[in-house]
Amino acid sequence: MSAMRLPLILLFVLLRSCIFASSVFLIKNPVDGLVPCHPQHIQALTQFKNEFDSSGCNQTDYFNGVWCDNTTGEVTRLKLPEGCLRETLSSNSSLFSLDHLRYLDLSYNNFNSSVPSELGNLNILEVLILSSNGFIGQIPSSFSNLSQLFFLDLSHNELTGGFPLVQNQTKLNYLDISYNHLSSKTLYPKSSLFMLHHLRYLDLASNNFSFSSIPSEFGNLFRLEVLFLSSTGLTGQVPSSFSNLSRLTKLSLDHNELTGTLEPISKLTTLDFLSLSFLKISYPFDLNLFSSPKSLLVLDFSCNSISPDSLSSDSGILLNLQKRDVASLNSQTS
User: Fold this and answer.
1) Closest by alpha carbon to 45, among 199, 36, 260?
2) Comparing C-alpha atoms, which of 177, 294, 179 is closest to residue 231?
3) For residues 145 and 96, what is the distance between their CA atoms, to the nearest angstrom?
4) How many helices (H) and strands (E) does the chain have?
5) Which residues form a coiled coil (predicted)?
6) CB 118 within 8 A of CB 94
7) pLDDT value at position 29?
8) Separation CA 164–CA 30 (nearest Å)
9) What is the value of pTM for the model shown?
10) Is 66 helix (H, G, I), strand (E, B) or coil?
11) 252 near 230, Cβ under 8 Å?
C-alpha cells in the first residue's frame, strides 16, 4: 500500500506548495553569505539545529530545506534532512519562534518525545508532516489552533489515546495517523474525527481499535476519496452509511474481523482499488456483488472463502477486472 500512497502524498504536497512559488525562494549556503532570510530567523534556525545532536548533518543540506519570503525574509517553509536530528523536541525550542511557517516537515528524525503542544502556536501552518519520528503520548489538543491546516501526517510514530477535539480545522483535506497505537476512542461516534467534513484522504491503518465496530459516522465524511482502515481490529458489519461515500476511489478494510454483508461497499461505483483480504468471513462469498463499480482495477479478496460461481468464465466481476488486466484473487474457493 505504501507504494500506492506515495504518489498521492506527493500530489497533495505539490499542489499546496504552488502557493510558495511566486513569493519565496531557497535559502543559500550561509557560508557564502548569500542568505535572503532575515538574520533573526537565520539565528533561530541555527539555534534549533544546535538543540540536537546533529553531528550527522551536512551544513549545506540542513539549510537547503529552508524557504523564506522574498519581501519580509521570514521563514515560511522548513523541510529538514532525514535522520538529521536526535534527542527531545522541547517545548521551549526556538522552532516555535518561526511563527510565519506555512509548511513544516520534520519527518524521519529521532525525537522520541511527546509532540509539543507549542506546535499549535504555529497557527498559519498549512502543511505539517511529523511522520516516523518516534513521537510518543497523545496528539495535543492545541492542534485545534491550526485552523489553516490542509495536510497533516503523523504516521509511523508511537502515539496513543484518541483523536483530540478539533473545532477549527475546516480546511483539513489529508489526514494520516496510521501505524500508531491510537485507541478505540478515536472511533467513538462523537469523536471529533467525524467533524472533519472536508477530508478527502484518511488513513487510520494499523492502530489499536480492537473489537470496535465500524461507526456509521464514517458516512458523514462524504468528501472522502481514499479511506484505509486495514489492521485496526474492527469487527461487525460494514454500516449502511458507507453508501454515502460516493466519491471513494480507494478503500482498504483488510486484516479485520468483519461479519455480515458487504453490500454497502458494492454501491461505491467510483472505486478503482478495493482490499478485503483476511476478513475471516465464514461463508463463501459471491464476488459478483462487486460488479457494479465499473472503474474497479484491483480487488484483493485473498484468504477469504469465495463462491465457485464467482470464478466462472461469465462472472461479471472477473470480466470487469480482466478488461483492465489487474486482478488480485489469490483466494480459496468453496
Assistant:
1) 36
2) 179
3) 14
4) 5, 20
5) none
6) no
7) 37
8) 40
9) 0.84
10) strand
11) yes
Query: What CA–CA distance (Å, rounded) separates 290 from 320?
Result: 10
Question: What would the pLDDT profile of 33-92 be if each residue is shown by its tens digit?
Answer: 334 788 898 899 889 888 887 776 666 677 788 999 988 899 999 998 888 788 889 999
Domain boundaries, the chain: 1-209, 215-334
Instruction: Report the sign of the C-alpha dihedral through residues 317, 319, 324, 330, in that order.
Output: positive
Cα gap 286→290, rounded to integer Å: 9
Question: What confidence tier does 25 reach under pLDDT thresholds 50, 70, 90?
Answer: very low
At 291, is the secondary structure helix, strand, or coil? coil
Q: How far is Cα 169 from Cα 180, in angstroms, rounded to an integer?
A: 21
Distance CA 321, CA 285 (A): 17
Asked if residue 126 lies in contact with residue 146, where contact means CB atoms within 8 angstroms, the answer is: no
Cell of 247: 466519491
As a whole number of angstroms, the distance between CA 299 and CA 283 comes to: 18
Name the 3-class secondary structure at 38: coil
- Collapsed DSSP state (helix, strand, coil) of residue 276: coil
Where does residue 16 rank: exposed (0-12), middle (13-18), buried (19+ CB within 10 A)? Answer: middle
Which CATH number is 1-209 given? 3.80.10.10
- Residue 56 is predicted with a pLDDT of 67
Average pLDDT of the chain is 81
Q: Can you state the percent helix, strand and coil of the chain, rounding each to 5?
A: 25, 20, 55
CATH class, range 215-334: alpha beta
Distances (CA, A) of 146 to 28, 107, 162, 171, 221: 29, 19, 18, 10, 20
Collapsing DSSP to helix, strand or coil, 213 comes out as strand
Cα–Cα distance for residue pair 187/239, rounded to 1 Å: 14
CA dist 17 and 90 (Å) reads: 28
| Residue whose C-alpha cell is 530545506 | 65
For residues 253 and 289, give the distance between their C-alpha atoms in angstroms, rounded to a whole number: 16
Taking 80 as the threshold, does the pLDDT of residue 248 lie above it?
Answer: yes
